Every structure is written in structure tokens, then in C-alpha cells.
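<given_protein>
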Amino acid sequence: MPSISVFKAFRIIAERQDFRGRPARTVVQVTGEVDVATSAHLAATIARAMASAMEREPEGKVDLVIDLARLSFIDVSGINVLVRAECQARAYGGALVLRSPNRCVRRLLNVLRLDSVLAIE
């Protein structure tokens, strides 16, 4: 099995800009697999993205997008990271959105009844 660098698997990028020229949403791109070996790094990446978004936003509101288009696998530890991140974003008056999850991820979210908890675009 090929070795995937955890450090290349998760990346924070700024998306659109609002009318003041600041990024309106922060995107965390997820590539490869999220499992027990990589979920802590995903959680740390999301935490950095939230902290960065809170610094830019005077009200501390966090709008975060988790781009799952390149995700090939996620286990319960990764799902747990996403649910905790959504709760944190909501606590700060913001939102977390999952972008482009593949059919298997959507099915998993449906089976776990998280498709009504986690926003999907």
C-alpha cells in the first residue's frame, strides 16, 4: 500500500472574499483517507482553520467548508472530528459545511443519521 503523507492530506485555503476584501469562508481540503492514524491531524488542521477564521472576523463567527471531493475513505474517528468541528463552529455563531462528499460518505452520514446534522453542499 502506498504511503500517504499526512501533512499533504489536509490543506487550509481561503475561499471568496467579502465586500471588505476578507475571505468569507475558510476551506479545509481533505485528500486521501481519514482514519484513526490521520484523524488527529485533521482535527488539528480544522482547529487552525477555525482560529484563523476567528482572527479575521471581528464577531468571531466561523464559517468553515470541509472539501471532501478528494476523500477516498473515512472511518468513525474522522466522522467524530467532523461532528465536533460542526459543534464548535455553531458555538461560535458560524457554520460548517461538507462540500462534495462522495456517494459512500453520503451513505455513511445517512446511516448514522448525521445527514440532518451536518450541512452538505
